[in-house]
Write a structure and sequence with these properties.
It is a single chain. The chain is α/β, with parallel strands linked by helices and 434 residues long. It has 17 helices and 14 strands. Strands 3-2-1-4-5-6 form a six-stranded parallel beta sheet, with helices on both faces. Helix 9 crosses helix 11, helix 9 packs across helix 12 and helix 11 runs antiparallel to helix 12. The longest helix has 31 residues.
Length: 434
């Protein structure tokens, strides 16, 4: 079976490399010639653990290649898998037309009988829209369209793609199963088959539920801070309730950011507006999360009143651990705000070797954790890189001028157990406050 993976940024490069590893003959297609050239040398467009190695294996085996030419990629393809990462703006509004236009541009090259799997993050109704465009434009061709929502997790993308708990697949007819079943069952035996719109809505529902859980936990944590309750202990109490369970997404910490969760909340709000239905809960989730984004800033203001001249070490700048992307990073936004307040910002991140010229004007980037901590007044955990778990209380007290630690998600709780350190985490009040 020959598969064309269309769209080769994060989702697409992971999909192409993983399908090749599963034994399929895969051609990656993207109009960006520079991305194609890099991928053909085994260089992924961004850092993802294990991705470069998996790309190299596929290229060496000869069942993985990349091209910018749709004619060569689709001439013999049995399946076209749409994997464009849907762009979002700073307000989490998705550029769905970008994905639509990319798909429409390659429709003329599809052969009769091809199955198109769409995994880009798009609103419910998108697949039907593509189906109508195809039927109107190419009435003599028979092509089936399937929707299977992406399950991409930065830093764990390959593991999640190759060993998912289950795969959701939406399609129109039972007959459409025949061609795509071998692809999905090569990854997972648990397939949730449903109608197309249900699969699209399932993606919105999952991310909106997770977003609601994050907002709930963080809002509850604010109340814990003022009432002598410990949000971590309350979390344990919640998860011990059988109707909630140990896997619940209820850890207090940073606000959700980036666009993934927020994008689906926005999709649901747009659907509500389109049908004249209130989305009171989803509106409140965004409002609560937006307020929580300023938690670190409020804490810093409470502690220092005036941040001018304050030396702040921010450990971790990337959007999440396991990636080198800085786009929509809460840590980067915090650094910019600190500089605006007159603070002196130093940072270290294990995935970065240097910063852009623009960001270098905001952050003094150091090549080691120790260099970032030296003589600092405050330490802020920006990104929860596992290597930071090795930070010892003695290192903090010895290196810093004043050992104040702001650890939003209580990633380093052992630092809070040392009486020499003033330690702040979401949902945990200081001993002198209680």
């Amino acid at each position: 079976m020959k598969i064309c993976v269309c769209g080769l940024w994060h989702l697409g490069s992971v999909t192409a490399a993983s399908l090749a590893a599963a034994g399929f003959n895969v051609t990656g297609l993207d109009p960006d010639v520079e991305v194609i050239q890099s991928l053909n040398r085994g260089i992924p467009p961004l850092f993802e653990p294990g991705l470069a190695e998996l790309l190299g294996e596929g290229l060496k085996a000869g069942n993985l290649s990349f091209t910018a030419e749709p004619a060569s990629a689709l001439t013999e393809a049995d399946i076209m898998w749409v994997t464009y990462d849907t762009p979002v703006d700073e307000d989490d509004n998705a550029d769905v037309e970008f994905v639509l236009n990319r798909i429409v541009s390659v429709l003329p090259f599809l052969q009769d009988g091809v199955s198109v799997i769409i995994s880009s993050q798009v609103p419910v109704g998108f697949t039907r829209r593509i189906e109508r465009i195809f039927v109107e434009s190419y009435p003599g061709k028979s092509v089936s369209f399937v929707y299977s929502p992406e399950n991409l997790r930065l830093g764990k993308a390959i593991e999640v793609f190759r060993r998912p708990d289950r795969i959701v697949v939406g399609l129109r007819r039972e007959a459409d199963k025949e061609r795509v079943t071998p692809v999905f069952t090569s990854l997972c035996n648990s397939i949730e088959w449903m109608r197309t719109e249900s699969a699209e809505m399932t993606k919105h529902a999952i991310n909106a539920f997770l977003a609601t859980s994050v907002a709930f936990a963080n809002e509850l944590a604010l109340l814990c801070e003022r009432t002598c309750a410990d949000a971590g202990e309350v979390e344990r109490g919640l998860k011990s309730e059988k109707r909630i369970g140990p896997g619940a997404y209820l850890s207090p910490g940073p606000a959700f950011a980036g666009g993934t969760l927020a994008r689906d909340v926005s999709f649901l709000k747009e659907i509500g507006r389109a049908f004249g239905l209130p989305t009171i809960l989803f509106n409140a989730v965004r409002e609560s999360n937006d307020y929580h984004k300023s938690w670190v800033k409020r804490r810093l203001k409470d502690i220092y009143k005036d941040l001018a001249g304050c030396k702040v070490a921010v450990l971790g700048l990337t959007y999440k651990p396991g990636t080198d992307t800085l786009r929509r990073s809460g840590a980067v936004e915090l650094c910019k705000w600190l500089t605006e307040q007159g603070a002196i910002v130093r940072s270290y991140d294990p995935a970065l070797k240097k910063l852009s010229e623009e960001l270098s004007r905001v952050v003094n980037f150091r090549d080691s954790l120790e260099a970032a901590l030296a003589e600092a007044d405050c330490l802020v955990i920006g990104t929860q890189w596992p290597v930071f778990k090795d930070i010892r209380a003695d290192t903090v007290t010895r290196s810093m001028r004043e050992p104040v630690v702001i650890d939003t998600g209580a990633f380093l709780p052992h630092l809070g157990e040392d009486p020499r350190i003033k330690y702040f985490a979401v949902g945990r009040g200081q001993a002198d406050e209680t």
